[in-house]
Amino acid sequence: MAILHAIILTTRKQERIMSIDCRSRRHCDRRPLDRDEVFDSLIPAALSNNAELAARGLIYKRLPALTFSVDGRSVTLCERNGALRIEAGEASESAVVSLDSSALSDLVQDWATTMGLAMNSRVKMTRGNFEHWIGWEPIFRALFDGRPVHEPGATSISDRNGSDLNLNRSFELDDDPAEISHFLHQAGFLHLRGVFTECEMAAVSADLDASLARARPDDGASWWAGDSKGVQQAVRILFFHEQSAALSELLRDDRLGWLADITGDNLGGDDEGTGWLGAEGLIKPLDIQTGLSDLPWHKDCGQGRHSYYCNGLTIGLSITGADERSGALGVVPGSHRANIQPAGKDDSLDLPALKLVTQTGDLTVHCSDTLHRAYPPIERPRKVVYTGFRQPLMKGDTMEEVPVAKQRAARAQLTNVQNRIAGAGTNSG
Asked: Are residues 141 and 163 in the same domain?
């Protein structure tokens, strides 16, 4: 495999490798913004540049005006004559959300999305439908980042000759890296066949079974889900690389490592600074009714920070194959280049979804901003390991050191996120 890696690196110097880096913010520029600075300075400044752009998105999505109620002061964002405006007070026709200054600051700086605030119990909808709040996310990105809200026909997906890309194409390790890079750039995902052997995957599978058996609901290192009878079971092992010697060896293997070079972005490992990849082990059981097992449509930046780290790569190792009966991974090609809501799939979205049918040992790769989901298995359970690469810090950027224990605790707490989301919404109005 060292020879393969050398060939790939040599080819990369000769062929055009396409970047997927779309970041526009630095961590070091983020700062706490108080309510009045946001209402009286930041939003008016954004409106001076993007009022028409944001209003176009609002009109297209047919969303109501939105009122922010923050620490005793309310303002409303609404469309007037084709432009977004900010008005004092609460409008009678608006959806209304209540949040504090800290949450508002994170929202306008893309540190937390509308869904991210809900997932962490930092927002409460007091009037309107929760879907209105989620639907406003691309409007905010148009307003504060100048990204047009996606409309039908805005995103094309083409091959290197300008023709329609064959979205059902898959690749092998010895295929042209430039061709693979182009496909990833255009479609936002890859299917790589036969990367690891069935024997290698069987060893990882045995380690995952042992980890699932040891897991406990309060261990801070697993996610749990319930079936139709209310029986709770572990469905995700966090930090699984620490429990599987077989997986740890594969994470260092050139058959995986070469993907860090496939975009030309100098992608790196995302394992708490150790220099190599960490991973989570998942099982997709049958008959799951509650909990985070079969995740609905989402982007990996769906909680926030798109403009700080997208695009990274999420890599799935198929411990078992996946098909229509065992819960294949669903992706929306081209969605990583579209300003759409990062949680849920808008009915107006014109980009088609497809399922990635894989065999044991295959890899799936998707950009962190690609809309994807886990379809529930209906006949056989599925096992998969997810790992990934991240973008390096932008030039001149620094990032606050977050204690490892805090990172891990935050990840573990997502197992109970559905109740927090439900608590944020209302179905009134």
From this structure: no
Q: How open is the CA angle 165-331-361, to the nearest 5 degrees?
A: 95
- Are both 259 and 328 inside the same structural domain? yes
Domain boundaries, position 94: 28-145
Biggest CA-to-CA distance, the chain = 67
- Considering its fold, how many domains does the chain have in total? 2
Q: What is the distance of C-alpha 228 from the center of its chain?
A: 28
Question: Does one domain contain both 99 and 248?
Answer: no
Residue 160 and residue 372: Cα distance in Å, rounded?
24
CA atoms of 283 and 308, how far apart (whole Å): 30
What gap in Å lies between CA 197 and CA 374, rounded to an integer?
A: 24
Shared domain check, 105 and 37? yes
Dihedral pair phi/psi, residue 261, rounded to 5°: -105, 0
Q: For position 417, what pLDDT does the model report?
A: 67
Pairwise CA distance, residues 283 & 261, whole Å: 29
Ranges of beta strands (E only) in 42-88 are 66-70, 73-80, 83-88
CA–CA distances in Å: residue 317 to residues 111, 142, 262, 389: 29, 35, 17, 14
Q: Mean pLDDT per 10-residue run, the chain (429 residues)?
A: 43 66 96 98 98 98 97 97 98 96 98 96 95 97 98 95 96 96 97 98 98 95 94 96 96 94 84 62 94 91 95 97 93 97 91 96 98 95 96 92 84 74 58
What's the CA gap between 364 and 368, in Å, rounded?
13
Is the residue at 1 inside a domain? no
Cβ neighbours of 35 (radius 10 Å): 19
- 178 and 272 in a single domain? The answer is yes
Q: What is the pLDDT of residue 269?
A: 66
Backbone angles phi and psi of 3, in degrees to 5: -65, -45
What CATH code is carried by the domain that includes residue 296? 2.60.120.620
Instruction: Report how far apart, in Å, the C-alpha atoms of 281 and of each of 128, 146, 211, 416, 418 are.
Output: 38, 38, 9, 18, 21
Per-residue confidence (pLDDT) for residue 423, from 0 to 100: 66
385 shares a domain with 280: yes
Measured between alpha carbons, how far is residue 154 from residues 149, 350, 423 in Å? 9, 9, 35
With CA atoms as reference, report the closest residue to 364 among 378, 351, 375: 375
